[in-house]
Amino acid sequence: MKTAYRIVTPILALGGIALGIFLKLFSFVVGNSDDTINNLISAVSQLSSGKFSTTYSYSLFELIKMAATSTPKTGEDAKSFTEVASAVMTDIYAFAALFAVMLVILIAIAVVAACANTKKKRNASFFLCGFGLAVSIACIFVSNSAFAKITGGDVNLTDLVSLFSDNTLVTLATAILTVKSASLSAGFHSIFGIYLLIIIWTVLSNMLINTPIHSTKTYKRKKPMRRLVPARKK
Fold first, then answer.
1. pLDDT tens digit string along 164-193?
2. Nearest residue to 187 via CA among 20, 17, 15
3. Do the Cβ atoms of 187 and 8 come closer than 8 Å?
4. What contacts 109, CB < 8 A, 6 or more positions away?
5. How many CB atoms neighbour CB 67 within 10 A?
6. Rounded to whole angstroms, how far apart are CA atoms 210 and 74?
7. 8 A C-beta contact, residue 167 and residue 51
8. Which has more pLDDT, 232 or 197?
9. What's the pTM value of the predicted model, to 2 decimals?
10. CA triplet 208, 212, 214: central angle to 5 degrees?
11. Euclidean distance between CA atoms 184 and 143, whole angstroms
């Protein structure tokens, strides 16, 4: 069981890192309260050949790729991302730092668990997961603060979309849209779930190691063989 713990736990931790990076991390829904405008949005979506939608989801990998490949806009009215998202930049920095800590904790769990040949080291993985859950909860509060500002209109959607899209039709459509809702998506929840799974797995492993399950054998007592006594001569 000790060997199984040292193999399975690092796999879970590294798998959590992969899920957090490549699964969708944020999800945004845009729209308008007017049904007529919503019908117009549907028409625009069809004309844009799928480049425009009312639901947008991004993974950490996609966000890094977009930031690396996007070219800064030029012109008198051009704005940088920092200027457009100035209302939530503090929350973005805080979330980025906390999410990085969540990933680093998973790396630490993988290293510690791979060497966990004692209960003390297995419990270290347990407490690291507890710390990871606390950081995750802090991430939720920070993201909720940013999402409230975004849905409240503190970030100009048109300016934000124009930074990443050269499609004029899409940019014009955002002028009549607002962000109706924003939420953390599967990438974040998967890491949260991995922490809980490792905690449960650690508790179960400690129980099985302390009180291993052995197959019980039942022994039947054999009847003693009767000893043949030779008959006495008369």
1. 665 565 666 666 777 888 899 999 999 999
2. 20
3. no
4. 9, 10, 13, 125, 128, 129, 132, 198
5. 10
6. 66
7. yes
8. 197
9. 0.81
10. 140
11. 8
